[in-house]
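Structure in, sequence out. Go:
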């Protein structure tokens, strides 16, 4: 039994990598190649990093570059590796009360939503998506909560937050991967996309074994090495839903 237990790692990651179906696709392939079983705790990026800070994960796989760089600076990891990217999209009802459809500028779109006071659903969960959303509001010069009645924080992952937006016919920022795999769309559609600011980079880090001796350094590093290898990058690129690629590998060679 002991040998079998040794060949598993715990990865704290984001809800978007889990809810988009990416892990369900790539992890069995990695296990077949390496014999290492990857268990995933999927939470918002902020929580995923906190799990790493407690030494309760071997690897952290998230999407908030400033927060990841801080994690390395603080000594919780020695290296951040870029893995892949996709993008954020602004979703809203097809009736589009804020008249943002077809726009390319996320900040202008948010200004129009605020002016129209149409419902906006925020994850409010300190995730990478939530952090990005708050950066865009700040860039738009708009202070969101606590006083805005049109701005609703769900404190939930991407899928449940999309369900809320669907039920309320509200606007929401989502990662494209979770949106493509989301079935309960109701009257929602992508209204704003293509702004370079909506670029969404993912990074992976081994939790520092010098700080936490329980970290499975060899197996964790094997997973990271595979993700950024030619084979791992090809597997990530091959994951599609309805003919659309969800993640675009861009590990630094």
């Amino acid at each position: 039994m002991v040998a079998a237990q040794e060949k598993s790692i715990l990865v704290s990651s984001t809800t978007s990598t889990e809810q988009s179906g990416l892990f369900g696709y790539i992890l069995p392939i990695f296990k077949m190649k390496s014999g290492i079983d990857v268990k995933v705790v999927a939470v918002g990026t902020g929580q995923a990093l906190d799990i790493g800070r407690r030494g309760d994960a071997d690897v952290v796989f998230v999407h908030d570059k400033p927060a990841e760089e801080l994690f390395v600076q603080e000594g919780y990891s020695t290296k951040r590796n870029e893995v892949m990217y996709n993008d954020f999209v602004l979703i809203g009802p097809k009736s589009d009360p804020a008249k943002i459809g077809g726009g390319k500028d996320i900040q202008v779109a948010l200004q129009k939503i605020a002016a129209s006071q149409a419902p906006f659903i925020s994850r409010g969960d300190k995730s990478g998506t939530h952090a990005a959303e708050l950066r865009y509001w700040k860039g738009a010069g708009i202070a969101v909560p606590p006083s805005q009645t049109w701005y609703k924080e769900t404190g939930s992952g991407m899928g449940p937050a999309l369900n809320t937006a669907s039920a309320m016919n509200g606007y929401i920022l989502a990662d494209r991967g979770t949106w493509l795999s989301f079935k309960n769309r109701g009257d929602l559609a992508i209204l704003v996309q293509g702004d370079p600011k909506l670029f969404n980079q993912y990074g992976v880090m081994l939790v520092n074994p010098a700080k936490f001796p329980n970290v499975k350094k060899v197996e964790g590093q094997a997973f990271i090495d595979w993700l950024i290898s030619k084979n791992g990058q090809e597997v990530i690129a091959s994951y599609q839903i309805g003919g659309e690629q969800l993640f675009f590998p861009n590990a630094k060679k």
